[in-house]
Write a structure and sequence with these properties.
By secondary structure, the protein is an alpha+beta fold. Helices cover about 40% and strands about 20% of the residues. The protein contains 8 helices and 7 strands.
Length: about 240
């Protein structure tokens, strides 16, 4: 993925180039609505800056008065979009020349042309997804089996991120318990685990890791055995 100015409005073709019924182009950024407004004439709306979020608009794309194609737009405002920015999805006819011409027209109107995964990077930078979800989405296009697709969709939906977060909370609970036991004068940052709970969290953490092979997720728990996981066993 090429480096880009994260404040620049970007445009990307997100469907494969070729003969097809529909082509999709996405514009994302602060100026997305204004840039598309330069080339779009819609039915029932004169200014896309007044468009409602998650509403479809029918119209045509023009280049210096020449009609290029009829399209349907989906407008998503910053607070509702997957990138955390104003987004315009352009659905046009799927021929190579049509898609490329609209794409080039949007670039000449002020958007920076990028690869589709740059949209994911914007989502990541704007805290719409985390790194694990970003990686899962990038791998979705390479899924070859139903199970692989399910695992990646679950991962994109946050299941793995949630499991890891629970594991981190368990580990932090163990750490706080050890701090209290080793130094009673050190105030814990969070409520420490009681003695009996330490054994319980070991089981919970282990169960989280046991799920990973079933979901084709490599996992490793790294800890200091003499001080952490076997503290209770040492008395």
């Amino acid at each position: 993925m090429e480096m880009m100015n994260k404040h620049k409005t970007i445009v990307s073709i997100v469907t494969p180039l070729g003969e097809g019924g529909i082509g999709k182009i996405i514009v994302s950024g602060h100026d997305a609505l204004s840039i598309v407004n330069k080339v779009f004439q819609g039915k029932g709306i004169a200014d896309l800056n007044q468009a409602a979020s998650h509403k479809l608009y029918y119209g045509h794309v023009y280049d210096k008065g020449e009609r290029i194609d009829e399209i349907i737009l989906n407008v998503m405002r910053q607070e509702d979009s997957f990138t955390g920015e104003d987004v315009v999805e352009i659905n046009c006819h799927g021929g190579i020349r049509v898609v490329m011409r609209i794409y080039e027209l949007l670039q000449s109107s002020g958007a920076e042309g990028v690869e589709w995964d740059s949209l994911l990077q914007r989502s990541f930078e704007n805290d719409k997804i985390d790194f694990i979800q970003k990686e899962a989405f990038q791998e979705l296009i390479h899924a070859r089996t139903k199970l692989g697709l399910k695992v990646l969709l679950d991962q994109y939906g946050g299941s793995l991120s949630g499991a890891l977060q629970q594991g981190l909370e368990i580990i932090e609970g163990i750490r706080q318990s050890l701090l209290v036991k080793n130094n009673e004068n050190t105030p814990p940052l969070s409520p420490p685990l009681e003695g009996g709970e330490v054994g319980g969290v070991k089981v919970k953490l282990s169960s989280k890791c046991d799920l990973c092979p079933d979901r084709s997720i490599p996992a490793c728990v790294e800890a200091c055995p003499n001080k952490a996981m076997v503290y209770e066993d040492r008395g």
